[in-house]
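Lecture notes, continued. The same structure-token format from the folding unit now serves as the input rather than the output. Read the line below as a description of shape only.
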């Protein structure tokens, strides 16, 4: 069995896999070494892969040392895809893992994949398994917080989609600007990429995936565990025959 840990900007997701099947999913705010050590014993874990967007934690290294052949994902990790990216060392590990997951789920198909989390990343991987690049912009919560923190009087609004296109008060105006603005942005990106990759599969993940899926007027494959699935594929790829 395999343990995959995705340490993002706002939460930690951990998944236990048997081959390609996700057996257990846990979400926490912070990485807890004791919790993960218990998982190792409970499920007889053979290998571990960790992807972290945060500063390197000695506890992560300690966990990895418990299983030979485990991986702390970085730009030098062997992958089942290739990268058409000028600075692979700066490529977010979550974007990397999501690209691998798309290629595993939909081999031979171009995929446009969107991670609607703390940041919104919009990316493309070809049917031949080439990551072609993408864009990064502030997520919905980040937009709302920025308007509150970087101004003198604007309040902090909660995420809410309003049916009215025109805000009728300041709170609604902030919500429309952040929520509808992000949806319009992603919709425009999909329309443009649709011209370049007309038969592409569209895949959505991230904490705000349900919000986006509900209001984007297009057929979407939503998978909240896309990054974990990709991490598992990377781990299995490295555990296989030498490349």
């Amino acid at each position: 069995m395999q343990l995959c840990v995705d340490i993002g900007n706002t939460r930690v997701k951990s998944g236990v896999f048997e081959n390609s099947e996700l057996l257990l999913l846990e979400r926490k705010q912070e990485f807890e070494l004791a919790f993960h050590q218990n998982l190792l014993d409970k499920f007889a874990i053979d290998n571990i892969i960790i992807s972290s967007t945060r500063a390197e934690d000695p506890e992560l290294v300690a966990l990895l040392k418990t299983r030979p052949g485990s991986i702390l994902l970085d730009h030098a990790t062997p992958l089942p895809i290739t990268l058409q990216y000028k600075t692979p060392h700066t490529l977010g590990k979550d974007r990397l893992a999501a690209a691998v997951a798309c290629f595993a789920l939909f081999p031979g198909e171009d995929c446009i994949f969107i991670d609607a989390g703390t940041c919104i990343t919009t990316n493309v991987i070809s049917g031949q398994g080439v990551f072609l690049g993408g864009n990064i912009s502030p997520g919905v919560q980040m937009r709302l917080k920025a308007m509150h923190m970087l101004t003198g009087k604007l309040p902090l609004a909660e995420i809410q989609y309003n049916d009215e296109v025109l805000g009728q008060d300041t709170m609604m105006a902030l919500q429309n600007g952040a929520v509808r603005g992000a949806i319009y942005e992603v919709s425009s990106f999909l329309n443009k990429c649709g011209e370049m990759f007309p038969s592409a599969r569209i895949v959505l993940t991230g904490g705000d995936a349900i919000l986006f899926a509900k209001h984007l007027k297009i057929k979407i494959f939503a998978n909240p565990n896309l990054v974990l699935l990709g991490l598992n594929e990377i781990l299995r790829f490295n555990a296989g025959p030498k490349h």
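Point for the exam: The chain is about 35% helix and 25% strand.
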